[in-house]
Amino acid sequence: MVRRAWVGALVGVAALCMSAPATAQTRLFSDDSELPIIVEGPLNDLVRRAARSTDPFPAVLTIENQRFDMELSARGFSRRTRGICHFPPLRIDLSGPGASRRDTIMQGQNRLKLVTRCRSSATYEQLIVLEYLTYRLYNEITPLSYRVRAVRTTYRDAGGNRREDVQFNFLIEDVDDLASRNRLEAIDVQSGEVPSSQLNPMQASIVGMFQYMIGNLDWDMVQGPPGEECCHNGKLIAANETARQNVMPVPYDFDYSGFVNAPYAVPPEGSPVRQVRQRYYRGLCRFNEHAPAAAEHFRQRRDRLYAVIAAETRLSEDRRAAARQYIEGFFEILDDPQRFQRQVLDNCRR
After folding, report:
1. What pTM was computed for the model?
2. Which residues, at least 6 apart from 312, have a Cβ–Cβ distance to it below 8 Å?
3. Whole-number pLDDT of residue 2
């Protein structure tokens, strides 16, 4: 009976992860090559006010010799408000009708998150490459994942009050585009409005297994800060906006993971681990029946994950080796039935 359930779950995982998208990927996220962009605006004012304000500033985005008016604002919370970063994560809100972007690389784009370099150093450049790589790894696991586009951003202050800066950054696909290409829709709900019993069990197991693989504890599939939109570092998508069954969790924001290992990353308060490189499984016990199938799904993609890491030449040789070694540690647990039982299934979250 257990074997039958395991096989059924594995078949379900395969069907879930190989379903054809409803629409083609938008042009911006259909290519993995690094894209040069220019951001011009009152950057000095934006950066100085970021810790206390996310008010937008008028700015200009230049891509492929085409200029797009936009509003640019600081976003996020931890990196923006806790003195962690000298340069905040940004949000791009393109101005004007969508028709003005037709037949350009920005066709179909309106609001985008731009993940920036936290501080000006080679170490922080490597950290943002690792965070970008984390999204790419999850793309190999499931199409129910955010696409990302590497960009080399030149920042120019419109008033000449800040030195020109060039950073490796990346753009994150909008959740509505993610949902659309998977024949689903994003749903907006408050924290706790969708209980875990309404999540798709196979996709929830994949999310829990991925977070365990990268050593991330900074997430939740159904909860967030009280009174705020669900969920903590994740979104929910479903068959339509009102659906409350078979809901798919989609994670994002991996800078607190052990895989990235940022110097500011610490385990959540009350966590049993002392540092983020130490894995601790936070998948829900109610989905344990599907965890072995999720583990097998990852094992089948092991070589693809290693290939993605090997191809990331923006990482130093030492960083690439350390990244692969960290993922190898995950597969050592999956390959050992006793360790998998003890460190995953027996350690689930109730």
Report:
1. 0.93
2. 129, 133, 136, 320, 323
3. 45
CA of 186: how far to CAs of 169, 201, 235, 239, in Å? 25, 18, 8, 9
Please give the Cα distance from 180 to 182 (Å, whole number).
Answer: 5
Q: Mutual orientation of helices 317-334 and 302-311 as an angle, nearest 10°?
A: 170
**90-132 per-position pLDDT tens digit:** 999 998 887 789 999 999 999 999 999 999 999 999 999 999 9
The pLDDT confidence band at residue 78, using thresholds 50, 70 and 90, is confident
Torsions phi, psi of 337, nearest 5? Answer: -55, -40
Which range among 2-6, 9-13, 16-20, 93-97 has the greatest average pLDDT? 93-97
Closest CA to 11 of 300, 284, 211, 243: 300
Dist. CA 172–CA 170, nearest whole Å: 7
